[in-house]
Structure formats: structure tokens, C-alpha cells
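Run log, item B.
One chain of 219 residues. Sequence copied directly from the ordering sheet:
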Amino acid sequence: MKNKSFKKIKFWIFDLDNTLYPKSANLFSEIEKKMTTYVMKQLNVDFEKANFLREYYWKNYGTTLSGMMKEHNIDPEPFLYEVHDIPLESLTIDYLLVAEINKLTGTKIVYTNGSKFHANRVLNARGLSKCFQKIYGIEDANFIPKPHESAYKTIIKLANINPDYSIMFEDEPKNLEVPHKMGMQTVLITDDTNSDSRHHSTNNLTYFLSKLNESLNDN
């Protein structure tokens, strides 16, 4: 952990997918399958074309949903419900993570490019539902995804966040660019040992928070 003080932090902002649960849970593969199926039905294309478009929209617009809205004017609400209605048997309650998040003082927030529906289901499966005061999905950012600056500004205004007193936890490096520029401390959840030097990094959120809490309790 880098030698930076966390004592001034008042806003703890957590991404959801592959951040508040391990990547090994592999939820995103289920979501991607649902997205591809949705694109097939909406655009009347075969699997190969739909899978290509799903990834193309994600790379160029930030989310598959944004691409579908921009290029095909789809209704986002049915899309969000259908693609996030997935089995969650791979998730388990993480009592240690619950305990470490509960030790943090200040406002604890979940902000995801997924839906609020998805966030609430995942948090419940992880035993984290009571850990957070505020939960924001992409619908709260007017369906504009991270990493667009306007999306962060919308959530910052909604949650009354002061970036100078905030820290954000994310598994996507591109989604930490704007928070870092805004003055937030940033934590990249990654297995990559050559991570961006601008951010704290960890491959174990629970361990990182335990060390962070220890540092906060040092006199």
C-alpha cells in the first residue's frame, strides 16, 4: 500500500462487478451471453454478428447498452433487466469483506455501469446489502457509462460527493482516469503486477481494506 493518508477520506466509492466479488465468480460471462442474445433478437442478426457488435459497442461507447441506444435507439430498461437476470450461485457471503467495509467511517457508495437491480442482487448474495448508504446504477447517470466524465459528475452531484475527500475502487483502469483527475484517491483491483503507478493496486480487496483500516487506527 502506498504511503498516502486515508484519514481524510469521507466518501468510499466502490464499483460492483469484479470489484465487490472475485473475478473468478465469472458473472460477466453470463451477462455477456445474455447481451449477445438480446442483440441477436433486437437486430435480427446471427450469433457471430451479435457477439461482434456487443464487444464493438462496449469498446467504442463504454457499454453495449450505450452502443445499442446510440445506434439503434433501444429502450434501456428491458435491456438492463434481461441481461442482469442471471444466476448468482457462484457468489458467497464474504463475512471478512463485510466486516472491513463496516469499519470504514463516512459515506459508502456503490456505483456501477450495471443496473441498480443487478447491484442489489449481487450485494445481497455477498452479504453486503447493509454496508452501503447509497447505490447508483447506470440509470442514475442518465444511461451514460463510466468512463465518461459527465457520468461521474452526475453521480457526484446526486451523492453530494467531494472528490478531494474520496476514494474509488475499480477493476477497469480506464474507469479510474476521471476520478484520478478529479482529485480522488484511486484503487485498481487487478492481478497485473505492472499496474498504473498513479493508483493504489491490489488483487485482494478484503486484504487491502484490512491494511487500510489498520493504518486508520494507528496513532
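Observations after the first pass:
- The first helix runs from residue 27 to 43.
- The chain has two domains: 11-22+93-217, 27-84.
Flagged for discussion on Thursday.
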